[in-house]
Fold:
Amino acid sequence: MKNRTWAEIDINNLFFNIRQIKSVIPKKTAILAAVKANAYGHDSIEISRQLSGSVDMFGVASVDEALELREHGIKDDILILSPIMGSDIGKILKNNIMTNINSLRFAKELNREAKKRNLTARAHIEVDTGMNRTGIDHREAVENIEKIFKMNHISAEGVFSHFAEAEKKDRSFSIEQKTRYDIIIKSLNDRGIEFKFLHFANSSALVNIKDSFYNLVRPGIMLYGHYTDKFLKDKIKLKPVMRLKTRIGQIKNINKGDSISYDRTFTANKSMRIGTTLIGYGDGYPRLLSNKADMFVSNCSCRVLGNVCMDLTMIDISLCKDVNPGDEVEVFGDNISVDTLAELCGNINYEIMTGIGPRVPRIFFRNGKYYEKTILSLNHNGG
Structure:
């Protein structure tokens, strides 16, 4: 294997995380695995293939993401968690894809289009309990959901909402959101309206808001071995599924006073040995890591020097022994944490992983053995 840059995806760790998630929820609780944004950068097609049969459905963000799974043989239930456009209704009906109903207006359009085709649209209704992003406002939810429930060409299989800050130690707002949701569900039940699935809990809520499970949970980042807050590490043990690797492309010796990369943001104060790695912001390695982050090669942590380029990044290998062009470099993984890179950028681990570009092949491992390699097309619909 001689890729310039690649992401290793450990399927054993993926299943370890699934087992850990199942250990903290009631036995009969269903699982929606979030594979949106190309499975958080891990390759939605292969992750879905592997998890098929181990979870109850998959969650995506767009019609294109759902269709991509169908086109690659994923027959499991798929729920689109974000709003869709009316022009895409025909596609979801044709491909047995469940959609988010986020308003009475959209429900009417969905019902009308399904009636034209003599079909029934499968859907989950989203209630906005305080995120103020998408969904039917909780103050109008009971009345609107009752109207949707009566529509002849919609099968409303679930009602769900999103926590705004489930990872916080202060759970007061999350409890307020849950209370609003519970009042809505009780009012609907009192009117004889019940649903197959009730769901609210995301990754953080799985371990931080124990009474939010209902009968379906929606793990996302935790599937892939990461946390939304450091304090949650004490609540569940996870293993990162992805390692990002690159190679040394060239080695140079520079002198005191020599500068490195665009804009000359680093100037050597002594003689140094520099390794040019074959990764850059075109691969998803953030330019914000310029002069801040480390990479790991030959048992050494090596600081990034100068500005990250589109295709290349320079590191200090002055203290490393036996480093040669072609040697493997860890960008993040066992020695460099993706969380550390996120903190250095002032963002979150989600953004680092989902930002890994389509030209970076995903190399899959199971039981320590390589078994498949995918190079994503530039038109890949992840994220």
